[in-house]
Amino acid sequence: MNETALTVQQTARPHDFPTAAHFAFVESALPHPAPGSALVENLYWSVDPYHREMMDDVPGGFALHAPLEGRTIGRVIASRTPALTEGEIVFHRRGWRTHAVVAPEEIRRLPRFDGVPLTAYLSVLGGTGLTAYVGLTRIARLKEGEDLFVSAAAGGVGTATGRFARLLGAGRLVGSAGSAAKAGHLMREVGYDAVFDYHDGPAADLLAKVAPDGVDVFVDNVGGDQLAAAVGALREFGRIVRIGTISQYNTPDAPPPRFNYADIVEKSLRMEGFLVSNHRDLQEELYQFAVPHLQSGRLALDETVVDGFEHIVDAFLGMLRGRNTGKIIVRAGAPSGGAAHAGAGAGAGAGAGVLGTVP
After folding, report:
1. Which of 14, 45, 241, 343 places its Cα 20 to 30 Å from the Cα of 156?
2. What count of Cα atoms within 13 Å lies in the side-chain half-sphere of residue 187?
């Protein structure tokens, strides 16, 4: 067992894109669990777009010079409670650190399914997959044969949305991504019918080319011009599922999107956002839906795995720059170099999805 622990702390508030200078790795003695708690050695960490929002001075945001939080999977290595057994694998939210002291009520035990790797509980079976599942089944109420447009389709939620939509019987599936390579991956591997690179021109023109007859549902991870384009492309009774606004996370002074508000009324459109934390009751339903498809190979994992906790800040910054495909996960036990690679699940249909090393 290591005798020291590392935590990542935020040291300053960024105005636009954060840099490594906004974080610090802090070394301390290995924490000792108090009675009623246990010490967990963390194995896998999730870095997510919402972490960027929490870096700002907002209610519930990250405190400066304090350990950050995030979804994490770890192993209990010392316990002072009968409710947690040494050797157990648990999920908790005391991430961005190598070790965490947790109480039984702060953890969730993970069911183990044959052929399903642990990383899946941070991607397609975790908050990322649950976001996609809730968006499609509860917010959009997707019907078989309906056509979708998904922004940031190569990200964690975008790839999960595409794969789930195919399994749910969606019709034409179009998306946006940040490069031609990502667009090609989405069409070859994930099941998208057409994908445009949003750098190639006005979003409305690009969307019209890939979806000339419009769409029924827009799953929005980006906001901005792509949201405005989707309003124009939606058919009567279309739905907009608002998940994130990553286009504005690092450009707080960007103007809001402009679109024809009359379309909302004249086409009877519905726009609804949600927080996945309000839908935890659907976790078991997600398992029931997704796990059989993972085991059969019909559902693949789209993951970019970065080796080494020392690369967690780089992985986060790379994700904000779009340098991942699928869900980005940091794994302990790093070989030197911190190479990012795709698919952590032999036997679970691991999907390709790496465009190189996360710098």
Report:
1. 14
2. 17
Distance CA 152, CA 325 (A): 10
Residue 178 backbone dihedrals phi, psi, to 5 degrees: -95, 5
- The per-residue pLDDT for range 284-295, each reduced to its tens digit, is 999 999 999 999
- Contact assessment for residue 39 and residue 19, using Cβ atoms and an 8 Å cutoff: no
Token duo for residue 238: 């279309």
pLDDT band at residue 336 using 50, 70 and 90 as cut-offs: very low
Q: Which of 321, 332, 310 is nearest to 356 (CA)?
A: 321
> At a CB cut-off of 8 Å and minimum separation 6, what does 40 contact?
74, 75, 76, 77, 90, 92, 94, 99, 100, 101, 102, 107
What pTM does this model have? 0.90
Instruction: State pLDDT tens for residues 159-176.
Output: 999 999 999 999 999 999
Q: What is the 3-state secondary structure (H, E, C) of 271-301?
A: EEECCHHHHHHHHHHHHHHHHHHHHHCCCCE
Are 73 and 42 spatial neighbours (Cβ–Cβ below 8 Å)?
Answer: yes
